């Protein structure tokens, strides 16, 4: 996410409407992972933090809320953030993580074996995949799209949140702990 900030406060009715002008605000510090805290969920008009799958793996750095509010993540090391997870900071600040829409390829096949073979070949290339009954989703990639078309699979573009499988080692996309030697 860009750390550039808009020059005015959020429009009325947005999740952080009524906040002071953004250029005068220090970033909200987020240091705690609250999980799926039901008390935080009850808070009126929460700040929302849309992040791509890759951005959810980085637990430190500047981000912006959906309405442009500056945020500073200083979270302890651990697993990737999950959509629906709450983050907290000093003074009872609460922010909910969301999966941001991304440019995806949806892969389908009339033959379930062809789809299984595609998943195998993509996994061999350490491609992050989101699995659904009868389809695979991956980040838009023209080289992989051509490979999949050559295998006779049906492809279409999709702009949607991406929630790839964590993988065998549970570390999220592109995080694995084995040797390629």
Concise overview:
The protein has 181 residues and is of the alpha+beta class. It is 14% helix and 31% strand.
Structure, explained:
- The N terminus and C terminus are likely disordered.
- A 4-stranded mixed sheet has the order 2-6-7-3, with no helix packed on it.
- The chain has 2 domains: 73 residues, Urease metallochaperone UreE, N-terminal domain (HSP40/DNAj peptide-binding domain, Sandwich), CATH 2.60.260.20; 61 residues, Alpha-Beta Plaits (2-Layer Sandwich), CATH 3.30.70.
- It is 14% helix and 31% strand.
- By secondary structure, it is of the alpha+beta class.
CATH homologous superfamily placement of the largest domain: Urease metallochaperone UreE, N-terminal domain
Which residues sit in consecutive blocks of at least 5 with pLDDT less than 50?
1-22, 172-181
How large is the share of residues in beta strands? 25-35%
Global mean pLDDT: 82
Tell me which CATH architecture of the largest domain applies here: Sandwich
Question: Could you tell me the radius of gyration in angstroms?
Answer: 19 Å
Task: Name the shape in a single word.
Answer: elongated
Helix content: 10-25%
What is the total tally of β strands?
11
- Give the biggest sheet: 4 strands, mixed
Keyphrases for this structure?
2 domains, 4-stranded mixed beta sheet, Alpha-Beta Plaits, 181 residues, 31% strand
Question: What is the topological layout?
Answer:
Blueprint: E1 28-30, E2 32-35, H1 38-41, E3 47-51, E4 60-64, E5 70-74, E6 86-89, E7 93-99, E8 101-108, H2 112-124, E9 130-132, E10 135-139, H3 142-150, E11 154-161
């Amino acid at each position: 996410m860009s750390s550039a900030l808009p020059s005015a406060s959020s429009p009325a009715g947005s999740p952080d409407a009524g906040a002071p002008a953004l250029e005068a605000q220090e970033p909200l510090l987020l240091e705690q992972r609250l999980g799926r805290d039901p008390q935080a969920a009850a808070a009126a008009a929460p700040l929302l933090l849309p992040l791509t799958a890759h951005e959810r793996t980085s637990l430190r750095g500047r981000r912006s809320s959906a309405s442009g509010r500056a945020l500073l993540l200083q979270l302890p090391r651990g697993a990737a953030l999950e959509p629906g997870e709450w983050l907290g900071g000093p003074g009872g600040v609460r922010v909910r993580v969301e999966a941001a829409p991304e440019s995806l390829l949806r892969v389908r096949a009339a033959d379930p074996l062809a789809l299984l073979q595609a998943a195998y070949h993509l996994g061999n290339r350490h491609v992050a995949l989101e699995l659904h009954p009868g389809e695979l989703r991956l980040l838009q990639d023209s080289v992989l799209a051509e490979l999949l078309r050559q295998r006779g699979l049906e492809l279409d573009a999709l702009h949607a949140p991406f929630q790839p499988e964590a993988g065998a080692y549970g570390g999220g996309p592109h995080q694995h702990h084995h040797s390629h030697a």
